[in-house]
Amino acid sequence: MQSPNRPFFPHVSESRSQSNFPRARRRFSTTPKSQHGHTTPPIPGEELHVTFIDKEGAEHTFEVSAGDNLMDIAQAEDLEMEGACGGSCACSTCHLIVESPEHYDAMPEPSDDENDMLDLAFGLTETSRLGCQVKMAKEIDGVKVRLPSMTRNMQAGDFSGGKKKEG
Question: Is 72:86 a contact under the CB 8 Å cutoff?
Fold first, then answer.
């Protein structure tokens, strides 16, 4: 049992853990919603439009700039899109479903990396894409995308050294 006056980590000396420096207080701060994603405010007259359909079926339409990707837009607008890999095309948590086949066909073809990640996505459809890989452009102005009812985040902790989990 650790004594209350003894530091938790044995390699840290007591004199170091109880220094004579006053403990700094950190203030709670927030950032404005406009700083949540990595999006660029649209130039007046050059706005593009995207509509997200959330998990409850509510539609959210936004004016965005060409070049912004759908994952950053969703996160900047506080929609439920995880993006666990930060947009590096290494997960499927920004999976979305393009509602219109015409808009889907107007998008550049998914890369092999994107297709590999989409194979891991929950609720995969013929018009599924990763939000981090779809950049807004005039060709897809007015696109409507649906957020799937759930996502699958495959992490190392989900596996037990190749052994099957019983239970």
Answer: no
